Amino acid sequence: MNSGESAMEEPAAKILKKKGIRFERIQLEKPAFTVDDVVKYSQGRVQRESIVKTMVLRDKAGKFFAVCLRGGDRIDFGKVSRIRESKSKLASPDEVFEVVGLKIGAINPVVLDIPLYIDKRIIKLDKISFASGKHDVEIEAELVEVLKAIEFEEADVVE
Q1: Nearest to 64 by CA among 56, 53, 75, 55
Q2: What is the mean predicted confidence (pLDDT) over 27-48?
Q3: Would you give the DSSP letter of residue 61?
Q4: I want to staple 68 with a disulfide (CB 3.0 to 4.6 A). Which of 8, 14, 32, 118 is the partner?
Q5: Which among 78, 89, 99, 93 has a CA at the least distance from the CA of 156?
Q6: CA geometry: angle 107, 138, 54, nearest 5 deg
Q7: Pick from 150, 158, 133, 148: nearest CA to 31
Q8: What angle (nearest 5°) sits at the alpha carbon of residue 34, between those of residues 92 and 152?
Q9: H or E stretch including 112?
């Protein structure tokens, strides 16, 4: 770590270490806020197909939950509404920060304390990469290892 970097460990790295999960920390050239940014700023170390994004939603009753889907996929709100038995929408940036403690683009499945649905297409992946809790670091790990560290329900949530 050079003197210009924060000495504070990324939230995901801290949790994964505590749970004994092996992972690789990938420093990005610049802060990334989108899947395209991650691919671009990782200098080819992160492939689009392995990126898992975590999105926070709110149902009609005001309850928050999250979905994980592959980087190039889009949420099917009809499917999500059927799973939750309630119409759902993306949480606002302020709501996300209040509920998760992280900004949009830095959220990951290991830091969550809300219900989590992982799209069934992710389960087929060997390795995944996801936000570390900071916009300039990506975490890469074996999917089976990450799944040991989180509580989730497998679901079909994409278009």
Answers
A1: 56
A2: 94
A3: T
A4: 118
A5: 78
A6: 25
A7: 133
A8: 65
A9: none
Q: Yes or no: say if 57 and 64 are a contact pair by the CB < 8 Å rule.
A: yes
62-72 confidence digits (pLDDT tens) = 999 999 999 99
Rounded average pLDDT over 12-24? 94
**What is the structure's pLDDT at 58?**
96
Question: What is the sign, positive or negative, of the torsion defined by CA atoms of 115, 117, 123, 128?
Answer: negative
Sheet bearing 88-90, strands edge to edge: 88-90, 52-59, 64-70, 116-119, 153-155
Enter the tokens of residue 87.
């119409």
Based on the number of CB atoms within 10 Å of its own CB, is 4 exposed (0-12), middle (13-18) or buried (19 or more)? exposed
The domain locations on the chain are 11-155
| 115 and 12 Cβ atoms separated by less than 8 Å | no
Q: What is the mean pLDDT of residues 85-108?
A: 95
CATH of domain 11-155: 3.90.960.10
Euclidean distance between CA atoms 121 and 68, whole angstroms: 10
